[in-house]
Design brief:
The protein is mainly α and about 110 residues long. The radius of gyration is 29 Å and the shape is rod-shaped. It starts with a helix and ends with a helix.
Length: about 110
């Protein structure tokens, strides 16, 4: 009986160390996952902002080009507005087909 009492404290000590190590590991894994998601979000945000700016300036260039063809700024920018309206209607009609791939992309980003 005395032998069991002598063996019990080292086992309890090892168990405490194991639990502490598992807690530290869980914290480090959470930090790793959150920093990876945050870094991915920042780089994706930079890419999206760059693409939006590129799209914006290309839109202005096309609007001015159309304005020079029609000899009217109103007609050039009006054509661009019409193009964007058509794009918006197409996206609204295809919304259900576009949502699931976006959801899957976000899930992959989170669990990567």
């Amino acid at each position: 009986m005395e032998e069991q009492k002598e063996k019990l404290p080292p086992i309890i000590e090892q168990l405490k160390e194991y639990v502490e190590t598992r807690i530290k590991l869980a914290k480090l894994e959470a930090i790793d996952k959150s920093t990876t998601v945050f870094a991915s979000f920042i780089t994706d945000l930079i890419v999206v902002v760059s693409l939006i700016l590129t799209f914006l300036f290309l839109s202005f260039a096309l609007a001015f080009y159309l304005a020079s063809l029609f000899h009217s700024y109103a007609a050039g920018f009006g054509c661009m507005a019409l193009i964007y309206l058509i794009i918006a209607i197409i996206i609204i009609l295809m919304k259900d087909k576009l949502q699931q791939p976006l959801i899957n992309l976000f899930i992959k980003k989170i669990f990567k």
